[in-house]
Design goal:
Helices cover 82% and strands 0% of the residues. The protein is globular, with a radius of gyration of 23 Å.
Length: 382
């Protein structure tokens, strides 16, 4: 075998190794989700939950990358061109984030543009607000219950991406493959957690989620850990579908996910320009202020989402909750971000001023600490 043939073999192996891992993970996760449902067996339950989450995150990553590759460089040029005013910025941010399925990626791109001097902080603020709306599309997608179609999506998507000649067609196959993995992961997590329906300690623990502060904090921490508000919202929808949490608790958890996703922007701004750090501050301010606006009115948001969501009067008990709650939480998440944007869009200038002021305050504090440290060192030497 010559060097060229060897290279082809290694490229082929590299192309297939991710798929091999997923194919090995699917039966393990499905087994963990299916076995021993009459009693609580923690190892199998955790295996099913983690396996399902891994498939969900891998599917999100696969679909997001495929969408970005299919759109190509047009996203960057559109982002720079369509942000001439704050309203256009909101629509641009929402459309772009709905396309690439990640508000974090949008924010990271903004930080790059601002660092390069291609965009002002005022322009970026409108895009950030729109990005929060665009990311709710994921919750709307995962609220659909199309478990049986998920396996078909995986099969068709796999076939397209490995048989298509055109690169763009391959990217569409990867999108479908990733979407199928998202629904497959959701189903596995749901099946793995179903034995907890009658487990009183878990029911008591979920009752603590009625405290909105605790729910927001827990969701924010988890989102910061997994770097995906969509993953947190997906798990919240799984819990709601099993009847473990109320609508109000689900809304509070979704709010926390919005706060936790700001960590990605903070990480992306490390070592960047002052304006880039201020962009991350705007992202944090927008989400935290939004939470404080709605915290005393979660019940109002709950009523609005119920009014906008379909009902299933033919079902009763847990079955009805499982059919209605996922869509209600998804709609509440969308309402939360849309109304926040409508309220705060006229105050873009105020957000920019606050971000600059807070950054300057931190800068002054560091400077004062540095001077104090220098004075203490001089005194010791003296």
């Amino acid at each position: 075998m010559d060097r060229l043939d060897a290279k082809k073999v290694f490229l082929t192996i590299g192309r297939w190794h991710h798929l091999a891992l997923i194919l090995l993970l699917i039966p393990t996760a499905v087994w963990a989700a299916k076995v021993n449902t009459s009693s609580i067996h923690y190892p199998t339950m955790v295996m099913g939950l983690l396996g399902g989450l891994a498939l969900f995150l891998y599917g999100m990553d696969k679909m997001s990358n495929a969408l970005k590759n299919a759109a190509g460089s047009r996203l960057k040029s559109l982002l720079a061109r369509l942000t001439t005013n704050r309203v256009a910025g909101v629509f641009t941010g929402a459309g772009m984030t709905a396309t690439i399925q990640s508000s974090s990626v949008t924010t990271v791109l903004l930080i790059g543009f601002i660092s390069a001097g291609l965009m002002s902080l005022t322009q970026a603020t409108g895009v950030i607000m729109g990005a929060n709306i665009g990311t709710t599309v994921t919750a709307q997608i995962v609220a659909f219950k199309i478990t049986q179609a998920a396996y078909l999506m995986v099969a068709i998507g796999f076939f397209i991406q490995f048989t298509a000649k055109a690169d763009k067609t391959k990217q569409y196959g990867k999108m479908l493959f990733g979407l199928g993995l998202i629904f497959t992961g959701m189903n596995i997590m749901s099946e793995a957690m179903s034995p907890l329906r009658g487990y009183q300690p878990f029911i008591d623990a979920m009752a603590q989620m009625r405290n909105p502060f605790l729910a927001i904090l827990l969701a924010a921490l988890f989102t910061a850990l997994v770097q995906s508000s969509s993953a947190t919202t997906g798990i919240v929808i799984v819990l709601a579908g099993q009847g473990f949490i109320s609508l109000e608790s689900g809304i509070a958890l979704a709010m926390g996910a919005n706060v936790g996703t700001c960590v990605t922007a903070l990480l992306a701004a490390i070592g960047k320009s002052r304006e880039a750090k201020q962009t991350a501050s705007v992202h944090i301010l927008f989400n935290i202020i939004g939470v404080f606006i709605w915290l005393p009115m979660i019940s109002t948001l709950s009523d609005w989402s119920v009014a906008l969501s379909p009902i299933h009067p033919d079902l009763t008990g847990v079955e009805r909750l499982g059919a209605e709650l996922p869509r209600q939480i998804a709609n509440a998440n969308t309402l939360f971000n849309v109304v926040n944007t409508l309220i705060m869009l006229p105050f873009v200038g105020g957000f920019v001023w606050l971000a600059k002021k807070s950054y300057q305050k931190r800068l002054n504090q560091r400077s004062a600490n540095g001077r104090l440290s220098h004075q203490n060192t001089c005194r010791k030497n003296y």
